[in-house]
Amino acid sequence: MKTNMDQILKTLDGDSLKDNGKLLKLKDICINALMSMDENTTPEEKINQYELALKVNKGGEVELSSENRVLLKKLVGKLYGPLVYGQANGMLENDD
To answer: How far is it, in rounded angstroms, from Cα 7 to Cα 3?
Structure first.
């Protein structure tokens, strides 16, 4: 299923969410989450996360397998709070 990685996240009031003056896109939070790790991250998981980050970084419509969607939702959920995670979860569930 394809997902538009250039979708802009919003504040609770519906304004565009910004990080240091830059619009915050789905691809930005996904890449941040993919580049995060903990002491239990295996070398194989690191390679998988790196390769997925390269794919997501292209932006636009990106084909994501169901396994990649699950991974992205899991990692974004670990790194971000409800405002960002709630939107990212919905964006990763819906195809454009």
So the answer is: 9
Which pLDDT tens digit goes with each residue over 40-53? 999 999 999 999 99
Structure tokens at 55: 């794919």
Q: Where does residue 72 rank: exposed (0-12), middle (13-18), buried (19+ CB within 10 A)?
A: buried
Look up residue 64 and give its amino acid. Answer: L
Q: Which domain holds residue 51?
A: 2-93
First to last CA, the chain: 9
Number of domains, the chain: 1
Question: What's the pTM value of the predicted model, to 2 decimals?
Answer: 0.92
Torsion of CA 44, 46, 51, 57, to 10 degrees: 170
